[in-house]
Request: fold
Amino acid sequence: MKRTLAAAILSSVLALSTSALAKGPDSYQVTGQVTEITPEVIVVLKGKERFEIARDPADKTEVKVGDKVTIKYKMTATSIEKKK
Reply:
């Protein structure tokens, strides 16, 4: 009984630590006015800063130029170049 309980506790601890290590990238958000939009990209202007963000094909939100929106996004590396 004690061994079973200890094994269950150890299994739970390992599962929690593994899921913490497998955490994905941080999420970010930007709120601003839509200046351009295509099925693939949405461009938002926040003050003088321009954010060009790829759109998920699954997102079917109807947005038009001039709308104020809040976009949640994650950053993904598309290539990495090692420097000397």
Notes: Helices lie at 2-21. The longest helix spans residues 2-21. Residues 31 and 69 are 6 Å apart (CA to CA).
